[in-house]
Amino acid sequence: MEFLDAAADIGLIERRAILSCPACNEAIEAEAATEELCPFCGEAFADHGGVRRKPVYRLGVHGTRDIPWVIVIHGFNTHGEWQQDFSWRMGNKLKYSAPVLIYKYGLIRFSVLVRWRHRQLARKLGTTIRSAVEYARANRIPEPPDVILHSFGSQLFVQLLAMTEFDDLKFGRVIAAGTIIRPDYNWTERISQGRLEAVFCHCGGKDWAVPLAQYFIPGTGPGARRGFSDNAVINVMNEHYGHGGCFEIKELEANLAPGGLWDRFLRRHPSMFDGDPNLYRPKAWRPMWAPIRGIVRIVGIFLMALIAAIAITSISWAWLKAIIWTGIARPF
Questions:
Q1: DSSP label at 289?
Q2: 3 state DSSP class of 52
Q3: Which top-level group of life is the source organism from (predicted)?
Q4: Domain extents for the chain?
Q5: CA-CA distance, 111 to 291, in Å (whole number)?
Q6: pLDDT value for 331
Q7: SS3 16
Q8: Adjacent-strand bridge partners of 37
Q9: What b-and-e string marks burial along 97-114, b requiring 16 or more CB atoms within 10 Å of the CB?
Q10: Is the domain 70-273 a CATH 2.40.128.20 member?
Q11: C-alpha angle 139/140/144, rounded to 5°?
Q12: How confident is the model at residue 291, as a pLDDT?
């Protein structure tokens, strides 16, 4: 029994509970088990020790899936240090070679505020991925890559999917963490188009950054706090995660360990999450009223520009004073 439970915990077999009446031994549905009386014999469950539960085990009809190769894309205002940790642990996790492409678009800050910069970065991402796909095929890896997205990297990914010039690019499993994609994004359409296979959204209950995204970064929303309303997406909520909580070493190891959430999503059939207690079904989401978002964005851009101007002025004065002090220049 312990062996079977261990196999079920890591997703090798399926474990289910058969419910039965303690009085007549008839099998009953889960809904009937919540009632007081047995629908067959009319006896009270509590009078006979309560509903009986017997575990049964079944070998899953879907086998394990090999991870072909992976692309990891970081967020803005960061160098994406977690990408190296992920690559190292993925390489040590598997008994076969699964290359990891660490994509870095540079340390950007203010340019996330304008759409044209989004498209520019997405086009650069698409060009890099297309070259990587061609190289992988030349090295006998024909399968599309899985993708790990964080924060602004997730916005670049959906921008890429919207560009017709990159319609040839297809992807496998997609994990979005700390995502700023709109919660009402139509993932089902992308799946039906064959652009990707399945989507996993790892939400964080303490991610205080993403609710602000829709006010400052055009076309975004609090995906990592609200989850996606699209039924095709597997949403999982961790109430203790901040914006990068799932990339902390301990959490990354747990998610990638055999039977971990990411391991199961990447290696098993998505149906293995049916009925999983970790699943999270979000409520309907509506973006904030456009005029309010516009006003907040204008104020935010003004404040950022003011801070930048003050910083530049301070640096210029410090530089000028240094020149004067060293005698390279003399005050008038």
A1: P
A2: strand
A3: Bacteria
A4: 2-59, 70-273, 293-332
A5: 21
A6: 46
A7: strand
A8: 44
A9: ebbbbebebeeeeeebee
A10: no
A11: 100
A12: 76
For 176-197, give the secondary structure using H, E and C: EECCCCCCCCCHHHHHHCCCCC
Q: What is the DSSP letter of 320?
A: H
pLDDT tens digits for range 244-287: 999 999 999 999 998 899 999 999 888 888 877 888 888 888 77
Question: What is the pLDDT, as a whole number, of residue 318?
Answer: 60
Weakly modelled stretches of the chain, pLDDT under 50: 329-332
The secondary structure of 202-215 as a DSSP string is EEETT--SGGGHHH
Please compute, for residue 246, the number of CA atoms within 13 A of its CA located in the half-sphere on the CB side: 26
* Amino acid letter, 277: P
Q: Which two tokens stand for residue 151?
A: 């924060």
Please indicate, yes or no, whether the overall pTM of this predicted structure exceeds 0.70.
yes
Query: What is the per-residue pLDDT for 311?
Result: 63
Look at the block and give the residue holding tokens 């474990």.
15
Long-range contacts of 130-134 (CB under 8 A, 24+ apart): 130/166, 130/168, 130/169, 132/71, 132/101, 133/169
The single-letter code of the amino acid at 276 is: D
**C-beta neighbour count of 160 within 10 angstroms:** 23
Which of 187-212 are b and which e, b meaning 16 or more Cβ less than 10 Å from the residue's Cβ?
Answer: beebbeeebbbbbbbbbbeebebbee
Bridge pairing between strands 233-238 and 13-20: unpaired
CA dihedral sign of residues 239, 241, 246, 248? negative
- Res 303: pLDDT: 66
Do residues 161 and 192 touch, judged by C-beta distance below 8 A? no
Number of alpha carbons in the 13 Å side-chain half-sphere of residue 141? 20
Residue type, 1: M
CA distance 128 to 172: 17
DSSP 8-state class, residue 40: T
Q: What is the pLDDT of residue 332?
A: 40
Question: DSSP readout, 78-123?
Answer: S--THHHHHHHHHHHH-SS---EEEE-----SGGGGSHHHHHHHHH
Residue 11: its pLDDT value, please? 63
